[in-house]
Design a protein that fits this description.
heterodimer, A: alpha+beta, Glutaredoxin, 4 strands, 44% helix, B: alpha/beta, five-stranded mixed beta sheet, 24 helices
Chain lengths: 157, 630
């Protein structure tokens, strides 16, 4: 993940994908794995490659929760929305983190340093309530612990 | 047996035997998403470090889940002579040195971490694993290789009966394969229970070409991870099952649609498919039989509604995952409008067992109408979140006590959700229901894909309803007004009730939504209100309290209770003030108070100053705008 890709780089990145073969999601995954998100230019490149419209591609990018249209933050707290976490106080943890970071779920700071993301249950319910910090699980959280974690993330340079 | 397959299997068996006879101690660590969350990767690193430091010669390999998710990391240690294997749990990295010292250096056991003896004799301290209460009553067929074989090595699978079922199917007509599956009574494992054999027959008798198979591994139900355990633990079982279905229905291509949130399952399925292809079990002219079939591992992108089969098909096709209007059914027009069969992971995974051992053996395990075994995961307010494989039929109370270890605390179990956010809720009186499909259908709900979530009386029914409806609202594809608008409306009403604006008309409003949402196109909208429908019946008193008395007995609904400082002198109060994320605790001249309008009821203050803070019913519930108007 670095500088913005050129049109040629995007074209080359998705060159192997073909129209009518179920390649839209794989192409979008390829873009996101390479650049961290799917830019407007990438949407156009994928649409051209798959012989479809940018509108259709954009529709898909925004339909699926895990495609991003913005660069991911440097530090991301992913909050588990699963039922075991909910029963163990997950909703209170979400509210507390949102207020600490001053961000809604799905938001990120203006400078892109930190953000808050909605995570789905993956069945690590023995760790409930949990969040992931850049993919690493922080389980058995208390609300106070979550607030301290969020404050650390917010204060880190 | 096919002339090309037999040598592959024989060679795998020789390789496995040679591995077992290495003369070294063998440590096999469960490496899946659950164990990784509890530090299994660090444990493996520690084993390598300690073994190198102490110059110990051990074989180290990985395997799938034993089901002891709450006690990960788990691992087995097999003696150098190969006569004794012991399962250990909670082996975090800091316990590795002690474990290796005891087991490898001294050649004895470490009873403190031992769960049971897998192979060999029990000792006074360590009973046989088969006699462990968690294993008792389990029939591990799908999970037979989990704990034993390396999921990233097809040789291990082939050495344990793998592809023997496929070998038998190769010698049968498609009709005979379908008949065998029909005879077994295998029903769809995602909750529908529709006979898998009949589905395969629809595809077999379809007229258009090519035909497609799809494996629905978009396990989106929060609180369910049975498919994940299987894909991460024995992915070849799914590959072989789809191969057998391909023979039965003459399919050319198969897709395994795995949800985005399961990267390890995606990786292991891909490895499994690649290895099967290398062995000539996938691709063109499979084992010289002239049959062609190949598999694509397809990664989803985060959409619950893609678990609906036509939504999933649209997603592979390259559209938004919006369920289609049926008919036509997938067997007539699915992927690219060609005949397609969609089955759940577990449905396919049972096929190799049926073909290998025969339908009579397969269906003999269960007394219930539903045949075979089913994997379940239990979570929520339980001591032991876990994954088990059992025959259909036991009572929910029994599995709660035996496998999930009972309630997590002294609080009584208030109810459970039988399978996903659309499945409804059952009160504690339903703990005597059996784990079969019918009792839930009769109550207007359903037993879903296998994720059962228990809740105790710290949970509020209204809040649970809002939680599941918010999920349904978020995940609605937006096609039907009933679902898109109905779930939004339900969430609005529930939020208003939770903030103290409940109105007697809300019963009728919610019941109206229950009646209207069933007109939606797909399961998502049709069942979105199941939680509210069942909760209104089973927990009526709690709704009356919320709506009429403005009281939440579980103290969850934010508008119906408040925080108060009860002990001014408490030394922890300064810390409570400091932790509050909204500055809702004010201090003036050493006297603390809660500013109710700022308080978000996150409970952080009470966590740090439990003796100083208290909850109480709200003295005056403010008038909420719009309550009277609806």
């Amino acid at each position: 993940m670095g500088a913005e890709p050129t049109a040629q780089e995007l074209k080359d990145l998705v060159a192997e994908f073909e129209p009518g073969k179920g390649h839209l999601l794989p192409a979008l995954h390829r873009v996101q794995e390479t650049y961290g998100y799917i830019s407007r230019d990438a949407i156009e490149a994928v649409a051209r490659q798959l012989n479809t419209t940018p509108a259709l591609v954009y529709g898909c990018v925004t339909f699926y929760a895990d495609f991003r249209t913005h660069r991911p933050p440097e530090t991301e707290i992913t909050w588990c929305s699963g039922p075991a976490c909910r029963l163990a106080g997950g909703e209170r943890i979400r509210e507390a983190i949102e207020h600490t970071l001053e961000l809604p779920l799905g938001g990120h700071s203006d400078d892109g340093r930190y953000g808050l993301h909605l995570g789905q249950c993956v069945g690590t319910c023995h760790e409930s309530p949990q969040v992931w910090v850049n993919g690493e699980v922080r389980g058995g959280l208390t609300v106070a612990g979550a607030i301290r974690l969020a404050r650390e993330v917010k204060a880190a340079e | 047996m096919n002339a090309c397959l037999q040598p592959i299997i024989d060679e795998a068996k020789r390789a496995w035997a040679a591995e077992q006879a290495s003369g070294r101690v063998k440590i096999t660590v469960t490496l899946d998403t659950s164990s990784i969350a509890r530090g299994a990767e660090q444990t493996i690193a520690a084993i390598r470090d300690v073994a190198a430091k102490k110059k110990l010669d051990v074989d180290l390999s990985i395997t799938g889940s034993w089901g002891f998710c709450w006690a990960e990391p788990t691992l087995t240690v097999r003696t150098a002579a190969g006569t004794r294997t012991v399962l250990y749990a909670n082996v975090t990295a800091d316990r590795v040195e002690e474990l290796l010292e005891k087991t490898v250096v001294e050649g004895s056991d470490l009873p403190a971490l031992a769960v049971g003896v897998v192979e060999g004799n029990a000792t006074p301290e360590i009973p046989l694993l088969a006699e462990h209460p968690f294993m008792h009553g389990q029939v591990r067929r799908l999970m037979a290789n989990l704990g034993l074989t390396d999921p990233e090595n097809i040789t291990h699978y082939l050495a344990h009966g793998g592809y023997e079922g496929f070998g038998r199917a190769l010698e049968m007509d498609p009709e005979a394969i379908v008949k065998e599956v029909l005879d077994s009574g295998l029903g769809g494992r995602a909750g529908g229970g529709f006979p898998a054999g009949r589905k395969w027959d629809f595809l077999r008798t379809a007229t258009a070409e090519p035909r497609y198979l799809v494996c629905n591994a978009d396990e989106g139900d929060p609180g369910a991870w049975v498919n994940r355990v299987l894909m991460e633990g024995d992915p070849q079982l799914i590959v072989e099952g789809m191969l057998i279905a391909a023979l039965a229905a003459n399919a050319r291509w198969g897709y395994i649609y795995v949800r985005y949130e399961y990267p390890l399952a995606v990786r292991r399925m891909q490895i499994a498919v690649d290895q099967a292809r290398e062995k000539g079990l996938l691709g063109e002219n499979i084992l010289g039989t002239g049959k062609d079939f190949d598999l694509v591992v397809f990664k989803g992108a985060g959409a619950y509604v893609c678990g609906e089969e036509t939504g999933l098909i649209n997603s592979i096709d390259g559209y938004r995952g919006m369920p289609r209007i049926k008919p036509p059914f997938p067997a007539q027009a699915g992927l690219w409008n060609k005949p397609t069969n969609v089955n759940n992971v577990e449905s396919y995974a049972n096929a190799p067992l049926i073909m290998r051992e025969g339908s009579a053996w397969w269906s003999s395990v269960s007394d219930a109408r539903e045949k075979g075994t089913k994997m379940f995961t239990f979570s929520g307010a339980v001591k032991q979140p876990c994954c088990v494989e059992i025959p259909f039929g036991p009572k929910v109370r029994d599995v709660l006590m035996q496998y999930a270890g009972g309630p997590a605390s002294d609080r009584p179990i208030k109810g459970f959700q039988p399978g996903g956010p659309l499945s409804g809720v059952v009160a504690a009186s339903g703990l005597d229901l059996t784990l079969t499909l019918d009792p839930y259908r009769e109550l207007g709900l359903f037993l879903g894909g296998g994720g059962i979530v228990f809740f105790d009386d710290s949970a509020c029914t209204v809040d649970l309803c809002r939680y599941f409806l918010s999920f349904a609202e978020d995940e609605s594809c937006g096609r039907c007004t009933t679902c898109r608008g109905g779930t939004q409306r339900a969430v609005e009403v529930l939020r208003r009730i939770q903030s103290g604006g409940g109105h007697v008309g809300d019963f009728e409003r919610l019941e109206g939504l229950v009646r209207w949402l069933v007109y939606s196109n797909c399961f998502h909208g049709q069942f979105a209100m199941t939680t509210v429908k069942t909760a209104l019946k089973q927990f009526r008193a709690e709704w009356v309290e919320h709506i009429e008395e403005k009281r939440c007995r579980a103290r969850v609904c934010p508008g119906l209770f408040e925080y108060r400082v009860k002990a001014q002198g408490d030394a922890k109060l300064a810390e409570a003030k400091d932790i509050c994320p909204t500055g809702a605790i004010a201090e003036e001249g050493g006297k603390y108070s809660v500013v109710d309008s700022l308080c978000i009821r996150c409970d952080a203050c009470r966590e740090v100053a439990p003796a100083a803070m208290e909850l109480r019913d709200r003295a005056v519930v403010p008038v909420v705008a719009g309550a009277a108007a609806g």
